[in-house]
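Q: what sequence does this backbone want?
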């Protein structure tokens, strides 16, 4: 019993020691992205805040232990600016940021891209049938990636919860505006293919379409099935 208790204490201390650098990380200067999202690296990364205003990061494990909340400095500014816009366009929504890149870029667990600091996952905003935001599933951490939604955007095991495509589209519009202001553009959005029709039927989704923002037209089955609970955005430096 004492050995187990001691082992538990040692594990806890190890976890705390591993997470300390990310508690005190300081952003400064400008980032440099090398290569592509699929084969790249990142110099002088910026760490997104764990929580700020109307947005927060989705998992303390991903943030503090896996080093997965880092982005290019221009992406950092773009994300922060986009949520400032969303305070006006969708004031009742709290957004969740999912995985970004590692501190020096490179390979990430369970991701084929995200290697050069110009890729980021955003959690789908969810709503109840009455239109109010559904936050119940925002606190699942890494398990959130396992949520499944049908072709109409309804959560598989909860008929009262569905994707808020209008709010998602407003956020993408805000991202597009902020990206242009910060010397970036949106290169690609990845969304589960059978959800795109519902997205583009919304008022703001139609505005996204008019801007010509590129959405992936086909995806390998495994990749497609992973992009129903979140949308992936690739940026490129202008």
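A:
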């Amino acid at each position: 019993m004492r050995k187990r208790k001691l082992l538990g204490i040692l594990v806890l201390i190890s976890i705390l020691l591993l997470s300390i650098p990310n508690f005190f990380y300081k952003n400064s200067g400008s980032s440099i992205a090398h290569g592509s999202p699929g084969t790249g690296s990142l110099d002088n990364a910026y760490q997104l805040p764990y929580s700020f205003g109307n947005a927060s990061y989705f998992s303390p494990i991903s943030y503090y232990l896996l080093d997965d909340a880092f982005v290019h400095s221009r992406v950092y500014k773009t994300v922060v600016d986009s949520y400032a816009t969303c305070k006006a366009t969708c004031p009742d929504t709290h957004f969740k940021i999912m995985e970004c890149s590692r501190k020096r870029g490179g390979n990430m667990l369970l991701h084929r891209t995200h290697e050069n600091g110009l890729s980021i996952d955003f959690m789908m905003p969810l709503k109840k049938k009455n239109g109010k935001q559904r936050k119940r599933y925002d606190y699942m951490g890494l398990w959130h990636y396992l949520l499944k939604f049908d072709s109409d955007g309804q959560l598989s095991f909860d008929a009262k919860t569905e994707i808020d495509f209008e709010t998602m589209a407003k956020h993408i519009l805000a991202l597009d505006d902020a990206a242009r202001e910060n010397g970036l553009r949106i290169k690609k959005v990845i969304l589960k293919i059978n959800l795109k029709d519902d997205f583009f039927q919304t008022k703001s989704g139609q505005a996204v379409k008019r801007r010509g923002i590129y959405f992936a037209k086909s995806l390998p089955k495994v990749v497609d099935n992973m992009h129903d609970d979140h949308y992936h955005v690739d940026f490129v430096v202008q």
